[in-house]
Amino acid sequence: MKLFTTFAVLIVAVALSLGTSSLSFDASAQDTKKPQDTYTLATEAKLGQVTFSHINHTTKNRNLEGTGPSSCIECHHTAQPAAEAAKHPPLKTAWPADRTTTLTAELLASDPNAVGAVCRDCHARAEAKPKLLPENPQIKFAVGTELVTLTNQQAYHRNCAGCHDEIVKTRTDVTPPTSKKCTACHKRTTT
Questions:
Q1: Per the domain annotation, does 44 fall within a domain?
Q2: DSSP run (H or E) holding 2
Q3: Dihedrals φ, ψ of 156, to 5°?
Q4: Residue 74: which CATH number?
Q5: Is residue 53 part of a domain?
Q6: Which phi and psi (to 5°) does residue 40 adopt?
Q7: Is residue 50 part of a domain?
């Protein structure tokens, strides 16, 4: 009986340690949903990849006015209710379509899935199909009549460079790289 009790205690201890390990694993899996400090974008671009400092945009005075960090939805336009997204044409999509929350750092901290879709989910390379849509979205801007297909390259350039161009027009305290200075962001890696 003593051997049986010792064996039972050992099994319970192993089960508890496995349970604790799996709880730790789940917590670390959630941590991977937190934004990275830096992202490498455009890994297949002819001009070279782009290193994007997410932490700088979300902690420093990077909004258009220079009064605080960029809000999440300035880049993640689908992470807000459709009625809010529609106020900022041509960006009018929410994901999921019935979304009721607006992405903030606080919401992301409590819900690692709050981002919803990321850029390439809807904006694929020119020769590819996006993950969430039947094809890359097309938009018509207020000026002009031409439909523009928003591949991932078009989406990034219009969002990132467009914001940088606007900042150069409205602020004098910073000089971000503009849409005319491609290699300020794109860097070839040495192999």
A1: yes
A2: helix 2-31
A3: -60, -50
A4: 3.90.10.10
A5: yes
A6: -105, 120
A7: yes
